[in-house]
Write a structure and sequence with these properties.
The chain is mainly alpha-helical and 432 residues long. 56% of the residues lie in helices and 3% in strands.
């Protein structure tokens, strides 16, 4: 409730009339606490903007893929690769929405699952091997084989369509490594395998893999068919998620029509789980422990430094309630940061500073990559400086998670269980 200026003036006049006023000191009403529903609206608006940007850049990628297929050349292949890299920047910033939002988590495997047994899709180097005890489709090579067998049943793959990829090939045989759709399937089809280990160089698939007049790798028409279908499917999947965060979308309504306190917990769950178990643990510490380039996120393109950086930026965005769009405009509003600041300003300052520190450590990894030392080289055995740069980012992620936990406590939210990781919690298990 606010008290009008007229009432204050009247009170001062009355006091003055009695001769009792020697000095007037009064305190204006305290600023109202940040409305949790307003914070959830900001969070939903930013989700919509991020997925819209992901869709826009995926459509640009789809156009570049069509151009590559229509006119295979060094130039059109390079343009498609650059479009793929551009598409990763807004998408990675959405990953903070995955944890806590079941509708996003259930969908995410269709667009960003990794690592993948790429032999399911196309030809692979002899060093990849010919079989796996865990995956009967390890070298199924759908592009070369118009008929394959899944769980003892014959599958007609004569026509490669989005429906075949999504409905039959994706996680075929209930095996997670059978990733047939999404960014990483497209990445493999644009770059091919990175056979350089922890030495310099990414995948080097030639444009002639799509040139039917001068075909390398065999089955150029079917490879183009697969790439086009996978690209169309990515666009369709992103359209679905844009709708989920629109005004009448299920994801938005689920938050705004639910318990506001639970909604704020959802935001912090996403921040903590991506920060700790997923990014610091599974995506970074595991690869560093094993010094294994196969454990880097964008392993075909050597784009991992960008994906990790924008995951960290996305975590910070979720806390501060602000996102800079691809077109340069900004979506912002009431934030979790404001709520924490009103409760305990010191914790807000601490967490905000740590989020900046993590982004800075990721930018240091990026700088090394831009300077010629790719992420897979940075985690390579014997690279003390590169290993230290990656470990510094891991340490920053772990440290900021502790402050996220303090923010949860400050807001008196129910106990939140963040995703864990054996790589951080029980590293000995990694080597068993």
């Amino acid at each position: 409730m606010s008290i009008g200026l007229t009432r204050y003036s009247g009170r001062l006049a009355a006091i003055a009339a009695t001769g009792a006023l020697t000095a007037a000191i009064f305190v204006l009403p305290a600023k109202a606490d940040t409305d949790p529903k307003a914070v959830l609206t900001t969070y939903s608006d930013i989700a919509l903007a991020k997925f819209e940007d992901s869709l826009t850049t995926a459509k640009a990628l789809d156009g570049a893929v069509d151009a590559l297929i229509a006119t295979p050349s060094e130039e059109t292949l390079k343009a498609a690769r650059e479009a793929w890299k551009a598409a990763r920047i807004p998408y990675q910033q959405t990953e903070v929405y995955r944890f806590g939002n079941a509708i996003v988590d259930d969908w995410e495997g269709r667009v960003n699952a990794w690592p993948l047994d790429e032999g399911l899709i196309d030809y692979v180097d002899k060093g990849y091997g010919t079989e796996s005890d865990e995956n009967t489709l390890y070298t199924a090579n759908v592009i070369a084989n118009p008929a394959i067998e899944i769980n003892g049943e014959k599958v007609d793959a004569a026509k490669i369509t989005p429906e075949l990829i999504a409905g039959t090939l994706q996680e075929a045989g209930d095996i997670e490594a059978n990733v047939a759709s999404g960014y990483h399937a497209i990445e493999f089809l644009l770059w091919g395998q990175d056979l350089n280990g922890t030495e310099a160089g990414a995948g080097s698939r030639p444009y002639t893999d799509y040139d039917t007049k001068n075909c390398t790798g065999g089955n150029c028409e079917r490879r183009a068919e697969y790439l086009a279908a996978a690209s169309d499917l990515l666009v369709a999947d992103l359209e679905e998620m844009v709708a989920n965060w629109g005004p009448e979308g299920a994801a938005r309504k689920g938050l705004l029509e639910g318990d506001p306190k639970a909604g704020i917990s959802t935001i912090l769950t996403g921040m903590g789980s991506l920060s700790y178990g997923e990014l610091a643990g599974e995506r970074m510490k595991l690869g560093l422990l094993l010094h294994d380039p196969e454990e880097e996120h964008d392993c075909f393109s050597d784009n991992t430094h960008i994906s990790h950086l924008y995951d960290a930026v996305g975590i910070r965005d979720a806390y501060r309630g602000s996102y800079k769009r691809v077109d340069g405009s900004v979506v912002a509003g009431p934030s979790v940061s404001a709520m924490v600041k009103e409760t305990d300003a010191a914790i807000d300052t601490e967490l905000s500073g740590k989020l900046d520190a993590t982004v800075a450590k990721m930018e240091a990894i990026q700088a090394r990559a831009v300077g010629g030392e790719a992420y897979d080289q940075q985690i390579g055995e014997g690279n003390a400086e590169g290993n230290a740069a990656v470990q510094a980012a891991i340490d920053a992620l772990v440290d900021q998670t502790k402050s996220i936990e303090r923010a949860v406590a400050a807001l008196k939210l129910d106990t939140i269980a963040f995703e864990g990781s054996d790589s951080l919690d029980a590293p000995d298990k990694v080597f068993q």
